[in-house]
Amino acid sequence: MGGDKIVFIKICGIKNESELNIVSKFRDNIDAIGMIVGNTRSKRRISLETSREIVKKSELPVIAVSTDQSYEEWIEIIGIAPDGIQFHGNIGPKDVEKIREKYSGFILKVFEVERSVEDPFDESDRILNSMEEYDADAFLLDTKGGGTGMKHDQRVSEKVIHEAKRPIILAGGINAENVSEFLKADPFGIDISSGVETNGIKDERRIRSLLEHVYGI
């Protein structure tokens, strides 16, 4: 591992200090971690108290990830001082703008893509047009449902990456065995969770394998 930086890498779904320590071993090759907080049904959700401790102890930038929260709930999440926040769900452009007034960190907005799309060109254009409405620093394309470990229609990703005016991060079903396929689309970054887990726990060997495949391409 090592060498020139190829792509922004975020390991998401950090649940505790033990997983933080595992990921931190690769801090020279990983750019950020994500933790899932707030009112969400994710099996990787952690409390604000735990997330606050992770923010304090992490040597890597931390992105707080959540879904449809109220404005007050997002302000509470911002209070744990993450380096970035990631919006899933149906949050509108005006709500993001309102939160931006209170938060100067990195903002990432997620758009979901079906596993298979009938017309990838129309779907890509729909997403690209929606992106123009948001005051976000970057966007993430994930498989519909999020955290499924399933890939979405890469034809959509390729067109969005090629035409978007801001950085695009890919997520959904990425692992060591298929990461080269995702990188062919030339995204700004990749976001991995289940692809570096064994039985729902972050696995040092799987993280190492992923990074070796990235830097071996």
User: What order do the strands of the largest sheet run in, or round the barrel if closed?
Assistant: 1-2-3-4-5-6-7-8
Number of helices: 8
Order of helices and strands: EHEHEHEHEHEHEHEEEH
Helix fraction bin = 25-40%
Strand segment tally: 10
Task: Summarize it.
The protein is an alpha/beta fold.
3D structure, described in words:
It comes from Candidatus Methanolliviera hydrocarbonicum. Belongs to the TrpF family. It holds the Pfam family PRAI. This is N-(5'-phosphoribosyl)anthranilate isomerase. Its EC number is 5.3.1.24. With 217 residues, the protein is α/β, with parallel strands linked by helices. It has a single domain (8-215), classed as Aldolase class I (TIM Barrel). The protein has eight helices and ten strands. An eight-stranded parallel beta barrel has the order 1-2-3-4-5-6-7-8. Strands 9-10 form a two-stranded antiparallel sheet. Helix 5 (120-131) crosses helix 6 (154-163). It starts with 7 loop residues before the first strand and ends with a helix. The model has no long low-confidence stretch (mean pLDDT 92).
